[in-house]
Task: structure prediction
Amino acid sequence: MIINNSIQSVSSLYGTQSMSSSYRARAQAAASASDEVEISEAGQNFSEMLQKLREEPEVRQDKVDYYSKAIADGTYQVSSENIAAAMLGQRI
Result:
């Protein structure tokens, strides 16, 4: 294997030396142009709802406490029909 240490030949392959001044000027003008974004009312409503959901706790501790107590007391009852329907992906 022959390795050529000429950086100039490698850079010319990638075209880094051939960048014209007009191309550079257009690239700088495009970079300095400002963009503007306008969010629709539906998008704003969605954003507000999403923010409210993020503020809610991930675990509803009151429900966890209620069902934990009901299971521990033996008072938590689920109908076999509901279990079967859930296993089959049906709603009753």
Residues 3 and 9 are 12 Å apart (CA to CA). The mean pLDDT is 80.
